[in-house]
């Protein structure tokens, strides 16, 4: 059986997005890292979230475990959770020198008040600590639904400043977006970035397969307000909820968008596993 070119192009694009993509794994699931490594390609990027109260020493242990499993660890750096400048510098130096960390995801963090010297991620960049410690690339957050506490114009100014600092310091910059359950909203967001910042590589965040109730809980926790309202409008029908939150639909829409545009800076996807790293990795593998 032959398929239309648009269908086969989308299928190929879907595979490419996943192969170039990444997975998030909770520090509580580190014992699963070797199993994840048997499922995904070698050196797949695995992101380590910054959890409230998690010491940097524990994050370093997580980095070591992921690297030992044959995967590429990418720690989240939450500026407002950094308690001590020297401790943070020591952490980054060890992560880079001992475990080959070459990229981090730089975020402000959700703390209402800074725990230490940094009020936001820009201050971390401005002090040059990433370059000093050997980090060659950093990710910034993208918000297809907007940020629950930061106005859009402030986000845009901060992004422009981060790109400029990366250029000045010779460090690569890319974006990882928050997950969103509206494929059209994600496509519109990516199309806007392609027009305004075509040189910025984008990894689109996708909510991996999970229980619908858990997905609604994570949406609330992550500030994904539009998606959360969409979930609530579906009512209590679980079958209907599952249909509307199938992550494959998100991937197909994104692959179709990328394959049909001459200019697209989407280079891969970032899958949020929500505490289910192994089943999420298996799902990714089936679609590669």
Name some characteristics of this structure:
single chain, 288 residues, alpha/beta, TIM Barrel, 8-stranded parallel β-barrel, 49% helix, 15% strand, disordered N terminus
Précis, in short:
With 288 residues, the protein is α/β, with parallel strands linked by helices. It is built from 13 helices and eight strands.
Report on the architecture of this protein.
- The protein has one domain: TIM Barrel (Alpha-Beta Barrel).
- Helix content is 49%, strand content 15%.
- It has an eight-stranded parallel β-barrel with strand order 1-2-3-4-5-6-7-8, surrounded by six helices.
- α8 runs parallel beside α12.
- The two termini are 21 Å apart.
Topology:
Blueprint: H1 5-19, E1 22-24, H2 33-39, E2 45-48, H3 56-68, E3 72-78, H4 85-99, E4 103-107, H5 121-126, H6 129-132, E5 137-142, H7 152-169, E6 172-177, H8 183-196, E7 202-207, H9 212-221, H10 225-233, H11 238-244, H12 247-259, E8 266-272, H13 277-287
Parallel strand pairs: 1-2, 1-8, 2-3, 3-4, 4-5, 5-6, 6-7, 7-8
Helix pairs in contact: 1-12, 2-13, 3-4, 8-12
Gyration radius, rounded: 19 Å
Widest sheet: strand ordering: 1-2-3-4-5-6-7-8
What is the total domain count? 1
What can be said about the biggest beta sheet?
8 strands, parallel, barrel
List low-confidence stretches: 1-7, 234-244
Helix fraction bin = 40-55%
Structural class: alpha/beta
Q: What is the correct CATH architecture?
A: Alpha-Beta Barrel
């Amino acid at each position: 059986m032959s398929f239309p070119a648009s269908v086969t192009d989308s299928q190929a694009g879907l595979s490419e997005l996943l192969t170039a993509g990444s997975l998030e794994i909770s520090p509580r699931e580190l014992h699963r890292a070797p199993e994840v490594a048997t499922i995904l390609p070698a050196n797949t990027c695995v992101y380590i979230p910054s959890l409230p109260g998690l010491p940097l020493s524990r994050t370093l242990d997580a980095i070591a475990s992921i690297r030992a499993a044959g995967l590429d660890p990418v720690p989240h750096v939450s500026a407002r959770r950094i308690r001590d400048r020297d401790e943070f510098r020591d952490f980054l130096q060890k992560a880079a020198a001992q475990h080959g960390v070459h990229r981090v995801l730089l975020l402000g963090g959700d703390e209402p008040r800074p725990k230490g010297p940094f009020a936001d991620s820009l201050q971390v960049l401005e002090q040059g600590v990433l370059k000093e410690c050997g980090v060659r690339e950093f990710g910034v957050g993208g918000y297809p639904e907007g940020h629950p506490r930061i106005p859009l114009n402030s986000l845009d100014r901060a992004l422009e400043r981060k790109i400029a600092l990366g250029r000045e310091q010779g460090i690569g910059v890319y974006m990882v977006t928050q997950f969103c359950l509206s494929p059209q909203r994600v496509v519109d967001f990516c199309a806007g970035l392609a027009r305004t910042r075509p040189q910025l590589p984008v990894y689109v965040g996708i909510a991996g397969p999970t229980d619908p109730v858990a997905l609604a809980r994570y949406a609330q926790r992550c500030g994904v307000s539009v998606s959360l309202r969409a979930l609530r409008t579906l009512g209590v029908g679980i079958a209907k909820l599952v249909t509307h939150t199938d992550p494959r639909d998100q991937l197909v829409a994104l692959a179709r968008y990328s394959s049909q545009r001459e200019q697209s800076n989407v280079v891969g996807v970032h899958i949020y596993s929500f505490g289910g790293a192994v089943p999420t990795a298996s799902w990714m593998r089936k679609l590669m």
